[in-house]
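Researcher: Last one for today. Full complex below.
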Amino acid sequence: MPLDAMSDVSDTGLLVRFANGDRLAAVALTQRLSPRALGFATRMLGDAAEAEDVTQDAMLRLWKIAPEWRQGEAEPATWLYRVVRNLCIDRLRKARGVGLDQIAEPEDGTPSVEAALIAQDRAAALQLALNQLPDRQHEAVILRHIEGLANPEIAQIMEISTEAVESLTARGKRALSAALSPKREELGYDD
Amino acid sequence: MTTEQNDPLDAYFDAARAKAPQPSGALQARILTDADAVLASAGAPAKAPPGRLHAFLAAVGGWPAMAGLATATLAGVWIGISPPAMVETLIETQTVEYLPGFDALLEEG
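Model: Here's the assembly. Have a good evening.
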């Protein structure tokens, strides 16, 4: 089957084809899933090179699990997001040298958020503000508002309830508003 | 009150989505190299489970013992087909009577 014709095949279908030795299915899955894995990893880690390594590692795990993939259990994209999340958490823990629960929540925005706003770089300002959120709020906000996933899927990825996802995203957004709004008003962003 | 439609944060989320990182060609090549390696290892001939021959060899002591067994078998076959003169002499001259007098019993009825 040519690569173009694979656009109609589901992610699970492509994974089954790959497990049966179809290399083009790997190409199609890479084009489809690696941008999502890389986007999530980049926003989690804030480091492009590390995010690339995580993406490669997560995709390798997908290739390896393909022969044992059980249809109807989880979507490959959901499974991949969960793997990326776990790999990112491992790296963040190693970088900090402490458990995630021991990280204190920051109280205020940092001057660098302001600098990004002055530069009119909303994406950079948001990333800096996201980095200040507690990890679980950080993850939930990225998955909900940037990756555009539905709450039940985020619940599967984070292995928590849908209600917990709603709570995390609401608290995360409040904290983001608190970090961004005062600076935005001072700089006349809302005029 | 802030709603989903006029949330000031939406402009930030839109900007972040517009700046979504895209995998470079080099990263995609690395990912596909891994996929090829996984396919190659999956396609490699699997080790055959031990069969009857393997079990028999293990029982008799491996291939060296098998060589000795084969030599003895061939020698036996060869002696059967073409017995050396010494063997023929032995067969002809050394007749052992296990029931002496049995022939006499038959004759007497």
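Confidence is low (pLDDT under 50) at residues 103-107 of chain A. Chain A touches chain B at residues 18-19, 21, 23, 26-27, 30-31, 34-35, 38-39, 42-43, 48, 51-52, 55-56, 59-60, 63-64, 66-67, 121-123, 125-127, 145-146, 148, 173, 176-177, 180-181, 184, 190 (CB under 8 Å).
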